[in-house]
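Check out a protein:
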Amino acid sequence: NKMGSEADAPPPTSEKKLKLLCLHGFRTSALIMKTQITTKWPESILQKLDLVYADGPFPARGKSDVEGIFDPPYYEWFQFNKEFSEYQNMDACLEYIEEFMIKNGPFDGLLGFSQGAILSAALPGLQSRGLALTKVGKIKVVVIIGGAKFRDPSLSQPAYSSPIHCPSVHFLGDQDFLKEYGIELVGSYVNPLIIKHPKGHTIPRFDEEGLNKMLSFL
């Protein structure tokens, strides 16, 4: 029955969106990150992404830089010393992210800002060594905004010692206090896409060149 077979044909497939887990900055929140991205990024990019935002596992243990700009509650992913060379609760943090991915996935990759970017950028390397995210699928893409490397050798050695082949986008801000560390991080990735912007440590808007690069990457 020709009619029947036509009726049963699947609808034309719409372009599959990349599903990314979004990890927010230190002492902010999922809602704050969502607000920043949805107000700054154009529909042409947002319609290609399925963004899922998670709050960090720990309530903020001190003052937040966004107090007075965004409402609390604020969260953090892990704690660290002044030199950013020692970390606390990293195991609990990685476990929490994995559980979230199991419950809300599968995910194609990660999109991180600041503390969330530092985590996101290290996870492909840690995962390939069997040190994190062992119960979920391989991270296929990372988007890093205002990132840097971990400094503790117990994390940095396994995370970055081999070139990371995961497709990646790195936003580097001219005024970002982490810019030099972001450039150092880019060096660990194979064929990274770099998008520069004139701002500081923030989730930036796109200029025309950045927008075209991001669209072609997606």
